[in-house]
Amino acid sequence: MLHYHTFGPLGRLEHEARVATRLAPEALYPEVVAVGRDGEHAWLVTRRVPGIVLSAAWPWLTPDERRDAVHQAAAALRAVHRSPAQDLVPPCLLHGAPVLSRPALAAWLRTLGLPPAYERLLSAADVPSVMAHGDFHFNQILWHHGRVTALLDLEMSHVEAPDWDLGPFLTACLDPPQMVPERLGGTSRPEDYRDAPRWLWEAYPEMFASASLVDRLALYAAVLRSTELSADPRRCKEILDAALAWARALEPLLP
Question: Over 70: is that where the pLDDT of 38 sits?
Answer without folding.
Answer: yes
